[in-house]
Amino acid sequence: MDSVIPLRTTTATAATVATTVRPRFSIQPLSNPRPNKPAFSLSVPSSIFMSHRARNLPQCSPVRAQQDGSAVASESTIPEGDALKIKEWEAERFKDEIATSEGIRIRRRPPSGPPLHYVGPFEFRLQNEGNTPRNILEEIVWNKDKEVAQMKEKRPLIVLNKLLSSAPPTRDFLGALKESYSRTELPALIAEVKKASPSRGVLREDFNPVEIAKAYERGGAACLSVLTDKKYFQGSFENLEAIRNAGVECPLLCKEFVIEAWQLYYARVKGADAVLLIAAILPDLDIKYMIKICKLLGLTALVEVHDEREMDRVLGIDGVELIGINNRDLGTFKVDISNTKKLLEGERGERIREKGIIVVGESGLFTPADIAYVQEAGVKAVLVGESLVKQPDPTKGISELFGKDISC
Question: What is the DSSP secondary structure assignment for residue 13, as one 8-state letter?
Fold first, then answer.
């Protein structure tokens, strides 16, 4: 990504300014008046930005052409809206630096340039390359960022807070997993209500989320996972709400790509008992913050990891009680169930046992042999979607997956 070079020189010829900016900026006439009020919300927790306020972040100043042919750069002339947009851009770039230092390769949003500025009657924006998602997970996150912004406009946090009083009480997601494992001596099942996926397309044409949820419950599922992403998985929060209102007693996991704490409140209002936090897209500070919010709301946080670095990061965070190991690489969608065993061997497995963390095996589980493999590796729960939802009778599909009836 190109960096912004601060314009601090107080005098320069107009020709020099034009020569400097022409190769790196696109210039267009300034037609609309600039807004005085910013139309964004700063998504970086203030503790991140304020604790590093002394860092030398990029700065931008407006450039004004003078009658004598010189150009003046002055921060005092930055309109309020522009100044705040610049700070947001700077903070987002800093947050990207933090994420990169923690091994997070998924960018939160496209690396667009800083806010528009102006030179006389023209405005310019720094051009950048790399504005195409590098993999499907990054594409999903970029879309989710826009989607959440639109949803927040319709239902701001103050509205959700008022709705919490009428939301159904949360159920003990973690307790349900422990009880099932103790009763069956097999990994507790989190059965997934899932219509489609980016890698497999539509999994079930005759998709009725409530009927599928009830079939899972009859088959012995301890908890349910409900996909709520609409664009890529054809899910919805309406499905989550409908299952909860239909009297299904299994605790419900909101399977969503969470990037902001606002989504936790929304999931709680819609009837979720647990939420998914994906380490591949969330920095440590965000995970810590969201776990605290979950505890305040009565939600269980399932923190998902895929590789050793993500596992080490999550094990270093206080308050984590439930870790999911995804055998599917969310960047390539390749599946390898040996990933579960690899992440639970040696010192990591010891730390998990010492902390009393429940581990959930996710993805690539289709047979009793698969279930036995991850159980031997150390998991006490499994999250299964595709191999069950495609079955004509999901209740029977659970018995076939475990090699026995686990409903008793």
Answer: B
